[in-house]
Amino acid sequence: MATICPRRRAFTLIELLVVIAIIAILIGLLLPAVQKVREAAARMTCQNHMKQLGLACHNYHDSTGKLPAAVLMNASVNNPADHNQNFGPNWMVLVLPYMEQDNLFRQVSDSINRYATTPAENAWRVIRSTNIKTYRCPSDTGGDTPCARAGGNWARGNYAANAGPGMFWVGGTAALIGGPTGAWTDNSPSFNPDPGGYAGLAFSGGGVMNVNTGQSFTSITDGTSSTILIDEMRIGPDANDIRGTWAMGQTGASISAGNGRSDTPTPNVSCSGCDDIQGGTDAPAVGMGCCSGCLSWQVTAKSRHTGGVNTAFADGSVKFVANSVTTRTWFLLHSRNDGQVINGDY
């Protein structure tokens, strides 16, 4: 007797739609979690990069007795904030041997040595197009678009030396130290940051890496654990914006200056005209507002991490500073010698 197999019933359209809806809901629930995990991993990688850079600066200090200069500028430069002038190698070039990039450094070491006494020397710039993984934050975008300024083809980066809360300009109070004519000053007796978001206060505002010289750890009188060494920066929104350019010794590119002022009061602030970036793109809608008609005088630290920025401190630690930090604290964290007590609101 033949066995009659029961006929299998197919899914109805309604059942199929229900299954699809359930799958869509599950994906919708899981996707944010996956994105959070990816961002957490990217943030940790960024912190590791900053840790390596901080240790490289410490090793440089051990070898020379000082931190690296934020940027070298010879006598041909009369304005440190103008990228059309012949600025020299910056701190990220100088620490290459301590970042397992000794071969790259050797290619240009002779040019670096000649730069101080040779006004037209710029052969060191041949390495500017080299992409270095540890100089980039994996959370940021735009890294594949080189900066077209100052001769073009500058590779991108996300980290900047703290030159202090003063403006990066000739004669700017508490701005820079070691200019060829002595015009760029540092550690003035008092620095009144007005307009700086809190009038009436007078602090010294020295940075840790400046023009033509870096500071010794003993000159960081506020304490290395309370003074930022390296800030995080975002890459500019297009090729004409210098922000986030690793070998370019300019504010916003690889130098942090002016943090804690009225235009740059806290991390990730963006409004039209906030950053002063020569020839930059004023794009506040994507968090990159700037005064493009200014020279490169000031910039606030920025990142694509949720809620704040990574910072490397002079003691070698890496800390995440929240966007909610007060302007006063943000200023004090960037000054090595203000003599004030930080309340710990970061």
UniProtKB/TrEMBL annotation:
Superkingdom of origin: Bacteria
The alphabetical list of record keywords is: Membrane, Transmembrane, Transmembrane helix
Task: List all membrane-crossing ranges.
Answer: 12-34
Q: Where is the DUF1559 domain?
A: 35-325
Provide the protein name. DUF1559 domain-containing protein
A UniProt-annotated Pfam family: SBP_bac_10
InterPro entries attached to this UniProt entry: DUF1559, N_methyl_site, Pilin-like, Pre_pil_HX9DG_C
Organism the protein comes from: Tuwongella immobilis
Q: Which Gene3D superfamilies match?
A: Glycoprotein, Type 4 Pilin
